[in-house]
Amino acid sequence: MIHATAIVHPGARLGANVEIGPYSIIGEHVEIGDGSTVGAHAVITGHTRIGRNNRIFHFVSLGEEPQDKKYAGEPTRLEIGDNNTIREYCMFSTGTIQDKHVTRIGNGNWLMAYVHIAHDCQIGNNTTFSNNVTLAGHVEVGDYATLSGFVGVHQFSRIGAHVMIGISSVITQDVPPYLTIAGSPTAPRGINNEGLKRRGYSAEALAVLKRAYKTLYKSGLGLDEARATIAAEAETVPELRPLADFLAIPGRGIIR
User: Fold this and answer.
1) Could you give the residue numbers annotated as active site?
2) Domains parsed from the chain with CATH numbers
3) What is the pLDDT of residues 112-164, one digit of tens each?
4) Which of 144, 152, 212, 236 is the most exposed place for a label (fewest CB within 10 A)?
């Protein structure tokens, strides 16, 4: 299942039914799980572990050194889970010793062409990144987040679960779970109503999240007051717990 023109280091570990396309290069410390496919002219290097049933398309660069001037050759890692689609010209770097030592991408993600995921980013499960999404270092993205084309995210920013970010948005602060973010300048536009419906959120749950959005953005309360109000309600409303937990972490401050 390895094309004759591919170069696979003898130390690389390939699972059952792995396919490596023409002219691709697989490095010594790379592990690729069962059923994964790698297209043509891909370079997978560094201490990189890739799970099962991933579809990796042509011309990607996975596991290369981080674009960080402090990096001095430490054996940091890139870890990619199962069932991801990684399209053409994506570039994912390894981590740095200044943070988590690992760049991590979960399961079931759909990562379109030219996506850049920098060092120490932590990506959850079932996310969608459209073409040319660019994450600086140390960014965290929660499950089911959707980032539209040409979205840029500042280093150390956090993006919560179920967030929808509109095309060409520039994210310089944390984005709480469930929100829709769009426009120029980028600003909150309500909850991600359609996305949440598709994932089975009930009308009652959506109503609860809309009230929380109004508390956070429309009530006139200061951030500390709004945070306390949502945290108190989350004690009896499970749907609010992810939002309350997110707001409890100072981070870069939320987009508001």
Assistant:
1) 119-120, 137
2) 7-138 (2.160.10.10), 196-247 (1.20.1180)
3) 999 999 999 999 999 999 999 999 999 999 999 999 999 999 999 999 999 99
4) 236
